[in-house]
Inverse folding.
């Protein structure tokens, strides 16, 4: 599975002479609440409609096979069965395609009977095909594999300690060093749910890369796009300056820093406070919600119990409180000095600015 050609294969010409589309196969049958699919309907930069309709300059043609918008497909036995596109991909009849995985991948080897999650039925046996089986079948043929949401990227809630499913993220299933046949690593866009524009932007980048208009997608060591997850929540938070001034909230209706209420923002890589949730509006700490680290590989185990002050917060907030008190006092003195008009601005006929009239 680790073959790694240097450049993505170009889309093959269609029979009519037109450029063949890049198919986007969306598998949302892992252990999931479908929250990432719902979230993506709010994307605006770009929107899923702009991607599907090729509204962006230079974007290659795409065919999106996603349950939420694939209205042309019907149930099994219909004119265009949705699951048939996945069988076509397995047989090599559509190429290239990007495989999007939503939901964590359960360990079917520890299930003595039945299955944990399935996606469509095997036409020969009539039995469900497991999500892990589809991932194994399609990943070697895919141009790229994209994990959307924390469940698909790192396992999420379903993978927490004590779960009976053995759930894991796509990198744990395929291997963290896995590469597609185009040499592209697994691309992880975490979030519970994913920030909609983060995923739409990542998918658009991959499509431009497939068209030869963008270099290899830059990822960090946890396979997240670096331009989206290169800074912490704290660095982009509206409340960050209050931390520096040693001002901490003791109730959720306070506009000050939420660290003492359980916010993990200083150590969590996420751009939601800076980007907002939709069209720049919202974002967890911006609207009074603590960061619970849903974009991190250790979520949720390493960040529980939620609502408790994170380890080290007592020390850092105490130091910040002492330092911040001195800073606020010095800034107060400066404020008293500059928060008034200059002395020469006064009524009267005599100029007091030092200006010398030429007449």
């Amino acid at each position: 599975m680790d073959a790694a050609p240097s450049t993505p294969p170009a889309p093959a010409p269609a029979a009519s002479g037109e450029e063949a589309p890049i198919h986007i196969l969306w598998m949302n049958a892992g252990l999931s609440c479908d929250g990432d699919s719902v979230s993506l309907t709010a994307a605006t930069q770009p929107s899923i409609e702009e991607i599907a309709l090729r509204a962006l300059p230079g974007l290659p043609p795409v065919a999106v096979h996603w349950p939420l918008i694939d209205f042309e497909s019907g149930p099994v036995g219909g004119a265009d069965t949705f699951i048939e596109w996945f069988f076509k991909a397995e047989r090599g009849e559509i190429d290239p395609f990007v495989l999007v995985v939503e939901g964590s991948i359960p360990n079917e080897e520890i299930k003595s009977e039945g299955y944990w999650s399935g996606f469509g039925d095997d036409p020969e046996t009539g039995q469900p095909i497991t999500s892990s089986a589809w991932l194994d079948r399609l990943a070697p043929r895919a141009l790229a594999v994209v994990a959307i949401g924390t469940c698909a990227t790192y396992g999420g809630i379903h993978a927490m300690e004590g779960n009976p499913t053995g759930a894991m993220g796509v990198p744990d299933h395929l291997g963290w060093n896995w590469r597609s046949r185009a040499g592209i690593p697994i691309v992880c866009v975490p979030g519970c749910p994913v920030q909609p524009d983060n995923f739409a932007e990542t998918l658009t980048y991959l499509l431009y890369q497939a068209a030869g208009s963008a270099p290899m997608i830059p990822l960090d060591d946890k396979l997240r796009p670096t331009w989206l997850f290169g800074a912490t929540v704290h660095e982009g938070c509206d409340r960050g300056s209050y931390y520096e001034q040693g001002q901490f909230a003791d109730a959720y209706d306070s506009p000050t820093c939420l660290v003492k209420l359980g916010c993990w923002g200083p150590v969590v890589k996420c751009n939601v406070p800076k980007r907002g949730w939709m069209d720049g509006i919202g974002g967890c700490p911006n609207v009074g919600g603590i960061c619970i680290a849903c974009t991190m590989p250790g979520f949720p185990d390493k960040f529980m119990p939620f609502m408790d002050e994170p380890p080290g917060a007592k020390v850092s907030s105490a130091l910040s409180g002492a330092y911040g008190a001195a800073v606020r006092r010095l800034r107060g003195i400066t404020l008293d000095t500059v928060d008034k008009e200059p002395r020469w601005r006064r009524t009267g006929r005599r100029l007091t600015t030092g200006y010398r009239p030429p007449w």
